[in-house]
Design brief:
Helices cover 43% and strands 24% of the residues. It has helices at 2-17, 34-41, 61-65, 77-89, 132-168, 173-205, 217-233, 253-269, 316-322, 328-338; strands spanning 46-50, 56-59, 69-70, 73-74, 93-100, 108-118, 123-130, 213-216, 238-245, 248-251, 276-284, 287-293, 342-348, 352-360, 369-370, 375-377. The strands form four sheets. Strands 9, 11, 12, 13, 14, 15 and 16 form a seven-stranded mixed β-sheet that branches. The protein has a five-stranded antiparallel β-sheet with strand order 2-1-7-6-5, sandwiched between helices. It has a two-stranded antiparallel sheet with strand order 3-4. By secondary structure, the protein is an alpha+beta fold.
Amino acid sequence: MGGFLVGTLVMLAIRRQSEPAAVPDSPPEETLSPGVASLLAVLPSSAVVLDREDRVLRASSAARAYGLVRGDTLISAELLALARKVRRDGEIREGEIETSGRKFGQESTSFAVRVAPLGSTGQVLVLAEDQTDRLRVEAVRRDFVANVSHELKTPVGALSLLAETIQDAADDPEAVTRFAGRMQHEAARLTYLIQDLITLSRIQGAEEIPTPEPVQVDEAVHEAIDRCSTKAASKDITLVAGGTGGLNIWGDDELLVTALRNLIDNAVAYSPEHTRVVVSARPAGDSVEISISDQGIGIPESAQERIFERFFRVDAARSRSTGGTGLGLAIVKHVAVAHGGEVSVWSKEGSGSTFTLRLPAFGGVAVATPRTTSTPLEAAT
């Protein structure tokens, strides 16, 4: 609401310049003093000045861009009603309104508004501050806290119950061993969840990568494969690196490895034994595309739009059995956004999935050095 503070100062300045005067029967064309017009021009909020007949005397470019003003008409009936009340009793009024969305896919735009009289000539100043993003962030934060609370309750509750069970079965060594193993599993799940939450919070907290640098895609791919090799070996899944070598992106190497590790882990978790996961890179104009393909169970088309949401699981029961936190793909999405790129998915049930990271190439052009052969990296040694 920084614009509202400036707007208040503008109102005070305008009032000082406004001299009380009787309204003539046939008023001349109304104008604003140069000082007032200059102040309105620098306001970050959408600013509109209405004359005594509700015609727009002055409107900022922001007000027109948002569609609040068309020609010399204030479009919003709610704002017009507020302006007339202010003109009638001279009291400053505040409120909130919604208009149709100005961006593709945005249903509505929410404004915090302030309406005030300008002197005694019947003119009214309308200030409107776009608060759509702020409200969206607040809603996301509330949902995030609610989801985190729910997800943490499950392993914590399980640990508490298992501890009580072990206490009751103190005289049964086999039961103690079995339940202790379950406790270790739940503790590991809680650890992974906390680590993923910390990673996601760190990525979301930074508007941009603080120290971007050239990142060698080959090294990032091999590092991510190495971190996933033990999990893949347990299912006899072969991890293969292929595509084009010698590519570089502009960004953060650890974040890229984190995103690739999450995608490979996901592919391994949802693939049957004795299959393979292929990681390949290729130049794509001013970008580099890194794809992770598996031969797994696939993702239903109805779920593909939601899989990058926090804690969303296509099959909650299967996710619990694989130890997933429901945050891996959300982390991948935010890593892509932090690099100025995007992530997409192709999947068909029973045929596997392919996730593709598209990231800006270092230097603005993806320079390729073709490999003669792909590089298979067996997960089992």
